[in-house]
Amino acid sequence: MRHVRRRGWWLVALLLASGCVTPAATKEASRAHGQNLTDLKRAVESYQLALADYFRQLEAQQREAYIAEMVGREIDQLSQDQFQSLPYANFLSLRFTSPGKQTQAASDSTALDFITLGEGIANSYETWGRDFDLRLSTAGMTLEEKRAELTKQLETKKAELEKKKAELEQMRSRPEKDDAAIARKEREINLLSRRVKAEEARLARGDAELTHVGTAAALRETARTLDLKLKRLQAQIDVMQAFHSTIDTYLGTDATIDGKAIAEAAAKAAAVDLSEFPELKKALFDHQEAK
Questions:
Q1: Which of 5, 23, 105, 217 is buried most deeply by CB count within 10 Å?
Q2: Secondary structure letter of residue 98 according to DSSP
Q3: Residue 138 — left, alpha, or beta (φ > 0 → left; ψ -120 to 50 → alpha)?
Q4: How confident is the model at residue 235 (pLDDT cuts 50, 70, 90)?
């Protein structure tokens, strides 16, 4: 009986020493799962790039529509102003209804003036483009929030303008005047005054005129929200890959009892950052405390 027990212990020791080979099917399944995780991560990254490009295109469309609308209003206003300046503007309807009663109007330079003004319309495309970009880059997710921020910036510019005007008066009141310094200060004041007027005009526009800006702001916020979700998904995939790498390393050891391999795998798993997954972290620690 004692001989049988000793023989049994020798068999156990031999089994522990020789280990246990992981089945090939298990290894292949583990490899396939790792490849699936890699493909999933690549797909998420591609989708994230495609989604960002899609929203950039939508935002660009809103920008173009805003510029077209504002330039169109300028052209319409110019047309009306130029028409009213024509010598025969008040008798235009008479010209078409009773052309024989309308005397020949003297030639005027209004058409040439209109052509000259038309050359400046091209600059309006760039001007309204900058206006759109400024509004969109202003802090705030809604038009109301952006308007509040622009108002705050305007008040700061006004305070700076009053300060510069006071400095100019002091410079002018000195017995020994520095004409060059006074000229520089006057240029600064004129430039800042134009900026203040531009900001006041910008704030005077209502929401009806800023529909495209509001739409672009909403699109940008949606894009930001989706991007955050995709980044969170990428973090989750990273954690899954880390766990799978630990398991795959263990399966590839071809031994169920290997203290070194188990210790290395445990250390690698313990190094995984679970800060993005508070619920999983809490569940693991609660399970350990329960033991």
A1: 217
A2: -
A3: beta
A4: very high
Closest to 215 measured CA to CA, from 124, 141, 277, 123:
141
Report whether 105 contacts 87 (CB < 8 A): yes
What does the pLDDT look like over 3-18, one tens digit per residue? 444 444 444 444 444 4
pTM to 2 decimal places: 0.62
% of the chain exceeding 90 in pLDDT? 25
Q: Tell me: the pLDDT tens digits for 78-121?
A: 777 666 665 555 554 444 444 444 444 444 555 555 566 666 67
Q: From CA 41, how far away is CA 44, in angstroms rounded?
A: 5
CB 263 within 8 A of CB 250: no
Please, which pLDDT band fits residue 76 given cuts at 50, 70 and 90?
confident
Tokens of residue 230, six digits = 């995709």
Q: Is 40 exposed, middle or buried (0-12, 13-18, 19+ CB in 10 A)?
A: middle
Section 247-256 average pLDDT = 73
Say what the pLDDT of residue 1 is. 46
Residue given tokens 């300060």 in the structure block:
163
56: Cβ contacts below 8 Å, ≥ 6 apart = none
- What does the alpha-carbon distance between residue 219 and residue 279 come to, in Å, rounded to a whole number? 31
Q: Which ranges of the chain does DSSP label H, i.e. alpha helix? A: 2-18, 24-84, 92-97, 110-119, 121-137, 143-173, 179-204, 211-251, 259-270, 278-290
C-alpha torsion angle, residues 6, 8, 11, 15 (rounded to 10): -120
First vs last C-alpha separation in the chain: 39
